């Protein structure tokens, strides 16, 4: 329906949402208000953390009441390839974030997109982001089987101020999400971004080291780990070269060495090795 700021029902819903701030159904009520104006198919409230798996605040239930196995796989490791997660770690900011803003140039060609995003979210996604400290961002994600129109995105942007304000207020009632005292004093943007990149690389390095040790493969160097991370996330060879400030040919050489060390011959095999349990067997 078209928004009508004289619509008493809308104001009633906002009032009940405010009343629900300290209750278990806050996130569900928030989705009910928004879906009056924009259609979406799934939602989740998470806290992105740079050096560990996201914390789940609430998620949309499966239609048949079963466990969402794809979402479990996401929490077990594939979140590392999520463009929203990567963006929140590298450049945290409050506001509405769209997939078009954060997706790498080759995102739709990745195994992450084909095996998780396309199957679980299907078409499009937006997130409302609230950075909590130097390491964590509270996010409220709305996914759709269709692509959001310009009108849809404009509607989300119109709602962003009150959605984000309520998300900030909700923090006091989310177990385990209170301000992290270990986060330390505020950092400059440059220092914070550098620290974020270092922690994100360490997160990948730990995972890749564990997998290579388990499978008996040759360990990767820190630079090779970073090339794998960006490649699996959807950055093209040229984009990786620009991001790492190295030449196109150097990136290609790194990829050749990576494939030889790990005994793989394709991007899909590389993805399977690090993100699918069966892919680690055999080598």
From TrEMBL:
One of its GO terms (biological process) is regulation of DNA-templated transcription. It comes from Paraburkholderia tropica. This is LuxR family transcriptional regulator. It holds the Pfam family GerE. Keywords: DNA-binding, Transcription, Transcription regulation. One of its GO terms (molecular function) is DNA binding. SUPFAM superfamilies: C-terminal effector domain of the bipartite response regulators (SSF46894). PANTHER family: DNA-BINDING TRANSCRIPTIONAL ACTIVATOR DEVR_DOSR. Residues 213-278 form the HTH luxR-type domain.
